[in-house]
Amino acid sequence: MIIKLLKLFISALVLSAALLIAVLAFYPEQPAQDTRFGVTFSRQQAEGFGLDWQKTYIDILDDLGVKYLRLSAYWNDIEPEQGKFNFEILDWQIEEAKKRDAKVLLAIGRKLPRWPECHIPEWAYGLGRVEQNEAVLEMLEEVVAYYKDEQAIWAWQVENEPLFPFGICPRQDREFFEEEIIFVRSLDSSRPIVTTDSGEMSLWLMAGSQGDIFGTTMYKIVPWKLVGFISYDFLPAVFYRKKAAVLMKLLPNLEDVIVVELQAEPWTAGIPVNVDTLDRQFGRFGIERFQKHIRYARDVGYSQTYLWGVEWWAWLKKEAGHPEFWQEAKKLF
Asked: Residue 200 in contact with residue 12, Cβ under 8 Å?
């Protein structure tokens, strides 16, 4: 296992270096845009921090002034019993966003933002692979039909990094992912479909070829079991601009490339963030690092950038006596 992880780590570094050299050397630079900032919000993550998730959500809308939200239709929330759907939690979030003219990118599917990545209801764990996939399609049909006429939702994100091996999930299944895309498109052709993949560990081509808009993650300080924490600061912003330009050249039907997750919280290794000490949290992700990532996203210049970590800022402000991240984020919206 250790040798396998080491090989993966070395391969990732080689891939990143090769991509950097190829893209910087051989493709013309594209101008940066003024990015619109939004946030990813997870009810489950907010509750994990011990927060009142509804109050936190209202604060995000009213105090921060966020107008672009990425929300998740968690399978274990909306179908706790097979065939019995409950959209109450998600309805409330979307309705509050709509009251404030905020726009929602809705992530749907089995693998969605936040650990354990695949939010599978208890009843579905006992199903075989084929049967569980069929249940996923049935769930997608219910979600899309239910929200098809909801004007606050501007796009569907189908799955979250479905081709990237991360999380407690079934093995990656490209054919089924393609089936999901075709199915969702057949249910609603009026909205774009966003597909996503890792910013540094992927060429983007397979995931990007399936949707109308491609969303990349952007993490700069990440843990590796064998070497501790590593930094992707060596990748300049122009790398992402050129990589997006190459992708859109190869996929002429692709409408846009956006950032679906800009790291704006520390990534701890194996324990919840709020269980770690504040010294260690701020040592891995202090306010200067936060500001650096914002500048980097502006330099990359994609049309939209969704920040990852708003629940952490809320917890720091309410429970830990550190409002500085929340206050800094206010400047963006």
From this structure: yes
